[in-house]
Design goal:
The chain is built from eight helices and 14 strands. The chain folds into two domains: 13-212, Rossmann fold (3-Layer(aba) Sandwich); 271-346, no CATH class. With 349 residues, the chain is an alpha/beta fold. Helix 1 runs parallel beside helix 4. The strands form three sheets. Strands 2-1-3-4-11-10-9-7 form an eight-stranded mixed beta sheet, sandwiched between helices. It has a three-stranded antiparallel beta sheet with strand order 5-6-8. The protein has helices at residues 22-31, 109-119, 141-153, 189-200, 223-265, 270-273, 276-289, 337-346; strands at residues 13-17, 34-38, 55-58, 73-76, 83-84, 90-96, 102-103, 129-134, 155-159, 165-171, 178-181, 293-296, 311-314, 322-325. The protein is elongated, with a radius of gyration of 34 Å. The relative contact order is 0.08. The termini are far apart.
Amino acid sequence: MNAIIKGSRPRPRVALVGKYDEETLNNLRLLFPTVWEAENLHGIVPQVDPRELDLVVIGRNITQEANWIWNVNVISFSSDVPVPNPIGGYLTTSQVASTEAYNLPHLPLNIDRLRQVDFAGVANIKGWYLVSLDTRSAMNMALYNTAWERFAEGAIATEAVSGTPLAEIFMRADKKLGVAILPNPAFRIFPWVELICTEWAKTLPDLFPSFGDWTKTTEWMTADELRYSEELHRLDDEEKRILAELSKGKASLQIQLAQASSSANIGIRRLIKSQSDELVDEVAKALEALGFTVTKMDDQISEGSPKLEDLRIKDPDVKDWQALVEVRGYSKSGGNTSDLIRSCLKNMF
Protein backbone atom coordinates (compact mmCIF):
# COMPACT_ATOMS: atom_id res chain seq x y z
CA MET A 1 0.00 0.00 0.00
CA ASN A 2 1.12 3.56 -0.73
CA ALA A 3 1.87 5.66 2.33
CA ILE A 4 -0.39 8.63 3.04
CA ILE A 5 1.63 11.82 3.19
CA LYS A 6 0.56 14.36 5.79
CA GLY A 7 1.77 17.89 6.51
CA SER A 8 2.83 18.80 2.96
CA ARG A 9 1.84 22.16 1.50
CA PRO A 10 -0.24 22.55 -1.69
CA ARG A 11 1.56 22.15 -4.99
CA PRO A 12 3.33 23.54 -6.83
CA ARG A 13 5.69 24.58 -4.04
CA VAL A 14 7.76 27.40 -5.49
CA ALA A 15 10.87 29.38 -4.58
CA LEU A 16 10.92 32.93 -5.99
CA VAL A 17 14.54 34.10 -6.09
CA GLY A 18 15.56 37.66 -6.93
CA LYS A 19 14.15 41.17 -6.94
CA TYR A 20 10.95 41.62 -8.93
CA ASP A 21 8.86 44.69 -9.60
CA GLU A 22 5.78 44.90 -7.39
CA GLU A 23 3.27 43.94 -10.08
CA THR A 24 5.25 40.88 -11.18
CA LEU A 25 5.81 39.73 -7.60
CA ASN A 26 2.13 40.07 -6.69
CA ASN A 27 1.09 38.15 -9.82
CA LEU A 28 3.53 35.34 -9.03
CA ARG A 29 2.26 35.13 -5.45
CA LEU A 30 -1.29 34.76 -6.75
CA LEU A 31 -0.24 32.20 -9.35
CA PHE A 32 1.15 29.63 -6.90
CA PRO A 33 -0.48 28.23 -3.73
CA THR A 34 2.84 27.85 -1.85
CA VAL A 35 5.67 30.37 -2.19
CA TRP A 36 8.98 31.12 -0.46
CA GLU A 37 10.90 34.26 -1.38
CA ALA A 38 14.55 35.26 -1.14
CA GLU A 39 16.88 37.73 -2.84
CA ASN A 40 19.38 34.97 -3.67
CA LEU A 41 19.48 31.18 -3.97
CA HIS A 42 21.19 30.67 -0.60
CA GLY A 43 18.41 32.59 1.11
CA ILE A 44 15.90 29.84 0.30
CA VAL A 45 17.64 27.05 2.24
CA PRO A 46 16.97 28.44 5.78
CA GLN A 47 13.27 28.67 4.92
CA VAL A 48 12.62 25.29 3.29
CA ASP A 49 14.49 22.10 2.47
CA PRO A 50 14.97 22.33 -1.32
CA ARG A 51 13.91 18.68 -1.62
CA GLU A 52 10.37 19.83 -0.86
CA LEU A 53 10.36 22.33 -3.73
CA ASP A 54 8.72 21.70 -7.09
CA LEU A 55 9.98 24.79 -8.91
CA VAL A 56 12.49 27.62 -8.57
CA VAL A 57 11.99 30.86 -10.50
CA ILE A 58 15.29 32.76 -10.78
CA GLY A 59 15.01 36.47 -11.52
CA ARG A 60 17.38 38.70 -13.42
CA ASN A 61 20.74 39.82 -11.97
CA ILE A 62 21.16 36.71 -9.81
CA THR A 63 24.79 35.56 -9.85
CA GLN A 64 25.08 32.94 -7.10
CA GLU A 65 25.00 29.23 -7.94
CA ALA A 66 23.34 26.46 -5.94
CA ASN A 67 23.54 22.70 -6.50
CA TRP A 68 20.00 22.09 -5.24
CA ILE A 69 18.44 23.59 -8.39
CA TRP A 70 19.51 20.38 -10.21
CA ASN A 71 16.73 18.55 -8.32
CA VAL A 72 13.78 20.84 -9.09
CA ASN A 73 12.11 22.36 -12.13
CA VAL A 74 13.90 25.58 -13.11
CA ILE A 75 12.74 28.75 -14.84
CA SER A 76 15.65 31.19 -15.01
CA PHE A 77 15.75 34.76 -16.32
CA SER A 78 19.35 35.23 -15.16
CA SER A 79 22.32 35.42 -17.52
CA ASP A 80 24.78 34.43 -14.80
CA VAL A 81 23.40 31.30 -13.12
CA PRO A 82 24.25 27.97 -14.85
CA VAL A 83 21.20 25.71 -15.14
CA PRO A 84 20.88 22.00 -15.98
CA ASN A 85 21.16 20.92 -19.60
CA PRO A 86 19.06 18.01 -20.98
CA ILE A 87 21.40 15.35 -19.53
CA GLY A 88 22.20 17.08 -16.25
CA GLY A 89 25.29 19.03 -17.28
CA TYR A 90 25.30 22.78 -17.69
CA LEU A 91 23.76 25.46 -19.88
CA THR A 92 25.78 28.67 -19.92
CA THR A 93 25.38 32.20 -21.29
CA SER A 94 29.00 33.30 -21.46
CA GLN A 95 28.77 34.52 -25.07
CA VAL A 96 26.69 37.26 -26.72
CA ALA A 97 25.34 37.62 -30.25
CA SER A 98 27.64 39.55 -32.60
CA THR A 99 25.10 39.65 -35.44
CA GLU A 100 21.68 41.29 -35.68
CA ALA A 101 19.34 38.80 -37.42
CA TYR A 102 17.37 36.16 -35.52
CA ASN A 103 15.08 33.20 -36.22
CA LEU A 104 11.84 32.19 -34.54
CA PRO A 105 11.65 28.37 -34.85
CA HIS A 106 8.33 26.58 -35.27
CA LEU A 107 6.72 26.09 -31.84
CA PRO A 108 3.27 25.20 -30.47
CA LEU A 109 0.70 27.92 -31.04
CA ASN A 110 0.40 29.06 -27.41
CA ILE A 111 4.18 29.55 -27.09
CA ASP A 112 4.41 31.19 -30.50
CA ARG A 113 1.68 33.72 -29.64
CA LEU A 114 3.49 34.90 -26.50
CA ARG A 115 6.81 34.95 -28.33
CA GLN A 116 5.33 37.09 -31.12
CA VAL A 117 4.13 39.63 -28.57
CA ASP A 118 7.52 39.89 -26.85
CA PHE A 119 9.45 40.08 -30.13
CA ALA A 120 7.13 42.60 -31.79
CA GLY A 121 9.45 45.48 -30.97
CA VAL A 122 12.77 43.64 -31.40
CA ALA A 123 14.71 45.14 -34.32
CA ASN A 124 17.87 43.06 -33.83
CA ILE A 125 19.51 40.84 -31.21
CA LYS A 126 23.11 42.07 -31.33
CA GLY A 127 24.54 41.90 -27.80
CA TRP A 128 21.91 39.41 -26.55
CA TYR A 129 23.03 36.46 -24.43
CA LEU A 130 23.45 33.14 -26.26
CA VAL A 131 22.56 29.88 -24.52
CA SER A 132 25.33 27.31 -24.97
CA LEU A 133 25.27 23.57 -24.35
CA ASP A 134 28.14 22.44 -22.11
CA THR A 135 28.56 18.74 -22.92
CA ARG A 136 31.55 18.01 -20.68
CA SER A 137 29.32 15.69 -18.67
CA ALA A 138 28.46 13.64 -21.77
CA MET A 139 30.72 10.61 -21.57
CA ASN A 140 29.52 8.93 -24.75
CA MET A 141 28.00 9.79 -28.12
CA ALA A 142 24.52 8.53 -27.18
CA LEU A 143 24.32 10.99 -24.26
CA TYR A 144 25.64 13.79 -26.44
CA ASN A 145 23.07 13.09 -29.17
CA THR A 146 20.26 13.05 -26.60
CA ALA A 147 21.39 16.35 -25.12
CA TRP A 148 21.80 18.01 -28.50
CA GLU A 149 18.44 16.77 -29.83
CA ARG A 150 16.47 18.16 -26.88
CA PHE A 151 18.55 21.33 -26.87
CA ALA A 152 17.83 21.95 -30.58
CA GLU A 153 14.11 21.21 -30.21
CA GLY A 154 13.80 23.50 -27.17
CA ALA A 155 15.01 26.71 -28.82
CA ILE A 156 12.49 29.56 -28.42
CA ALA A 157 14.55 31.91 -30.62
CA THR A 158 17.98 31.63 -32.25
CA GLU A 159 20.72 33.79 -33.70
CA ALA A 160 20.21 33.51 -37.47
CA VAL A 161 23.86 33.12 -38.47
CA SER A 162 25.05 30.52 -35.93
CA GLY A 163 21.69 28.98 -34.97
CA THR A 164 22.62 29.35 -31.28
CA PRO A 165 19.55 29.70 -29.02
CA LEU A 166 18.63 32.94 -27.29
CA ALA A 167 16.25 31.09 -24.94
CA GLU A 168 15.39 27.44 -24.20
CA ILE A 169 12.60 25.27 -22.77
CA PHE A 170 12.83 21.46 -22.53
CA MET A 171 12.28 18.40 -20.35
CA ARG A 172 15.45 16.79 -19.06
CA ALA A 173 16.37 13.28 -20.19
CA ASP A 174 18.13 12.29 -16.96
CA LYS A 175 15.23 13.31 -14.66
CA LYS A 176 11.55 14.04 -15.10
CA LEU A 177 12.11 17.75 -14.62
CA GLY A 178 11.72 20.82 -16.82
CA VAL A 179 14.21 23.59 -17.53
CA ALA A 180 13.61 27.00 -19.09
CA ILE A 181 16.21 29.73 -19.48
CA LEU A 182 15.24 33.14 -20.87
CA PRO A 183 18.22 35.40 -20.08
CA ASN A 184 17.34 38.32 -22.35
CA PRO A 185 15.16 41.27 -21.26
CA ALA A 186 12.57 40.91 -24.05
CA PHE A 187 11.01 37.98 -22.18
CA ARG A 188 8.44 39.22 -19.65
CA ILE A 189 8.67 37.23 -16.44
CA PHE A 190 5.10 36.58 -15.32
CA PRO A 191 3.55 35.65 -18.72
CA TRP A 192 6.36 33.17 -19.44
CA VAL A 193 6.28 31.60 -15.97
CA GLU A 194 2.52 31.08 -16.27
CA LEU A 195 2.79 29.64 -19.79
CA ILE A 196 5.72 27.33 -18.98
CA CYS A 197 4.00 25.93 -15.89
CA THR A 198 0.88 25.29 -17.97
CA GLU A 199 3.01 23.39 -20.49
CA TRP A 200 4.79 21.34 -17.81
CA ALA A 201 1.46 20.47 -16.18
CA LYS A 202 0.76 18.28 -19.23
CA THR A 203 3.65 15.95 -18.36
CA LEU A 204 3.96 16.70 -14.63
CA PRO A 205 0.32 16.93 -13.47
CA ASP A 206 1.15 15.90 -9.89
CA LEU A 207 3.60 18.80 -9.49
CA PHE A 208 1.43 21.42 -11.23
CA PRO A 209 -2.14 20.35 -10.45
CA SER A 210 -3.60 23.86 -10.46
CA PHE A 211 -2.37 24.41 -14.03
CA GLY A 212 -3.98 21.33 -15.53
CA ASP A 213 -7.42 21.53 -17.13
CA TRP A 214 -9.31 18.25 -16.71
CA THR A 215 -11.85 19.32 -19.35
CA LYS A 216 -9.08 19.11 -21.98
CA THR A 217 -8.29 15.45 -21.32
CA THR A 218 -9.73 12.96 -23.81
CA GLU A 219 -11.68 11.15 -21.10
CA TRP A 220 -13.83 14.25 -20.47
CA MET A 221 -14.04 15.79 -23.94
CA THR A 222 -17.29 15.79 -25.89
CA ALA A 223 -17.57 14.17 -29.32
CA ASP A 224 -17.32 17.57 -31.02
CA GLU A 225 -14.27 18.51 -28.95
CA LEU A 226 -12.57 15.24 -29.80
CA ARG A 227 -13.32 15.69 -33.51
CA TYR A 228 -11.96 19.23 -33.63
CA SER A 229 -8.97 18.29 -31.50
CA GLU A 230 -8.09 15.42 -33.82
CA GLU A 231 -8.44 17.73 -36.83
CA LEU A 232 -6.09 20.26 -35.20
CA HIS A 233 -3.52 17.53 -34.57
CA ARG A 234 -3.87 16.41 -38.19
CA LEU A 235 -3.31 19.96 -39.42
CA ASP A 236 -0.31 20.32 -37.11
CA ASP A 237 1.21 17.18 -38.62
CA GLU A 238 0.43 18.42 -42.14
CA GLU A 239 2.01 21.78 -41.35
CA LYS A 240 5.18 20.07 -40.12
CA ARG A 241 5.28 17.91 -43.29
CA ILE A 242 4.85 20.92 -45.57
CA LEU A 243 7.48 22.94 -43.71
CA ALA A 244 9.90 20.02 -43.95
CA GLU A 245 9.28 19.74 -47.72
CA LEU A 246 9.72 23.48 -48.18
CA SER A 247 12.93 23.40 -46.17
CA LYS A 248 14.22 20.52 -48.28
CA GLY A 249 13.25 22.37 -51.49
CA LYS A 250 14.98 25.54 -50.33
CA ALA A 251 18.14 23.62 -49.51
CA SER A 252 18.14 22.03 -52.98
CA LEU A 253 17.63 25.41 -54.67
CA GLN A 254 20.41 26.98 -52.61
CA ILE A 255 22.79 24.25 -53.82
CA GLN A 256 21.68 24.78 -57.44
CA LEU A 257 22.08 28.54 -57.09
CA ALA A 258 25.61 28.12 -55.73
CA GLN A 259 26.47 25.79 -58.60
CA ALA A 260 25.00 28.21 -61.16
CA SER A 261 26.94 31.10 -59.65
CA SER A 262 30.14 29.06 -59.71
CA SER A 263 29.55 28.13 -63.36
CA ALA A 264 28.87 31.76 -64.25
CA ASN A 265 32.02 32.93 -62.49
CA ILE A 266 34.20 30.53 -64.47
CA GLY A 267 32.08 30.95 -67.64
CA ILE A 268 30.14 33.76 -69.21
CA ARG A 269 30.72 36.20 -66.34
CA ARG A 270 34.39 36.21 -67.32
CA LEU A 271 33.33 38.49 -70.21
CA ILE A 272 33.04 41.36 -67.72
CA LYS A 273 35.40 40.25 -64.94
CA SER A 274 38.46 38.59 -66.47
CA GLN A 275 41.58 39.77 -68.31
CA SER A 276 44.22 38.44 -70.71
CA ASP A 277 43.91 34.82 -71.91
CA GLU A 278 40.80 34.08 -69.83
CA LEU A 279 38.99 36.98 -71.48
CA VAL A 280 40.12 35.88 -74.95
CA ASP A 281 38.82 32.35 -74.31
CA GLU A 282 35.43 33.62 -73.14
CA VAL A 283 35.06 36.04 -76.08
CA ALA A 284 35.86 33.15 -78.44
CA LYS A 285 33.11 31.02 -76.83
CA ALA A 286 30.62 33.88 -77.07
CA LEU A 287 31.34 34.41 -80.78
CA GLU A 288 31.08 30.66 -81.46
CA ALA A 289 27.72 30.66 -79.67
CA LEU A 290 26.59 33.33 -82.17
CA GLY A 291 27.52 31.04 -85.08
CA PHE A 292 30.93 32.35 -86.11
CA THR A 293 33.93 30.17 -86.84
CA VAL A 294 36.64 31.33 -84.46
CA THR A 295 40.39 30.81 -84.61
CA LYS A 296 42.63 31.75 -81.71
CA MET A 297 45.69 33.13 -83.46
CA ASP A 298 48.13 32.53 -80.62
CA ASP A 299 47.63 28.80 -81.25
CA GLN A 300 48.66 29.23 -84.92
CA ILE A 301 52.09 30.79 -84.51
CA SER A 302 55.34 29.24 -83.40
CA GLU A 303 57.11 30.27 -80.22
CA GLY A 304 59.11 33.48 -80.62
CA SER A 305 57.10 34.69 -83.64
CA PRO A 306 55.52 38.17 -83.57
CA LYS A 307 52.07 38.32 -82.02
CA LEU A 308 49.02 38.48 -84.29
CA GLU A 309 45.46 39.52 -83.45
CA ASP A 310 43.82 37.59 -80.66
CA LEU A 311 41.03 36.07 -82.77
CA ARG A 312 40.12 35.67 -86.41
CA ILE A 313 36.46 35.00 -87.12
CA LYS A 314 34.56 33.91 -90.20
CA ASP A 315 30.87 33.77 -91.04
CA PRO A 316 30.01 30.38 -92.54
CA ASP A 317 27.16 32.02 -94.50
CA VAL A 318 29.28 34.78 -96.06
CA LYS A 319 31.98 33.69 -98.51
CA ASP A 320 35.39 35.34 -98.30
CA TRP A 321 34.46 37.34 -95.18
CA GLN A 322 36.58 37.43 -92.07
CA ALA A 323 37.23 39.79 -89.19
CA LEU A 324 40.25 40.38 -87.01
CA VAL A 325 39.50 40.68 -83.29
CA GLU A 326 41.74 42.24 -80.66
CA VAL A 327 40.42 41.60 -77.13
CA ARG A 328 41.00 44.13 -74.36
CA GLY A 329 39.63 44.25 -70.83
CA TYR A 330 38.54 47.56 -69.35
CA SER A 331 40.03 47.24 -65.86
CA LYS A 332 43.57 47.51 -67.22
CA SER A 333 43.18 49.35 -70.54
CA GLY A 334 40.62 49.80 -73.24
CA GLY A 335 41.32 48.81 -76.83
CA ASN A 336 43.37 51.32 -78.83
CA THR A 337 43.31 52.13 -82.54
CA SER A 338 46.99 51.16 -82.72
CA ASP A 339 46.09 47.60 -81.79
CA LEU A 340 43.84 47.31 -84.83
CA ILE A 341 46.37 48.98 -87.16
CA ARG A 342 49.07 46.60 -85.94
CA SER A 343 46.96 43.57 -86.72
CA CYS A 344 45.94 44.89 -90.13
CA LEU A 345 49.55 45.65 -91.13
CA LYS A 346 50.66 42.15 -90.12
CA ASN A 347 48.03 40.61 -92.33
CA MET A 348 48.84 42.78 -95.36
CA PHE A 349 52.33 41.41 -95.84
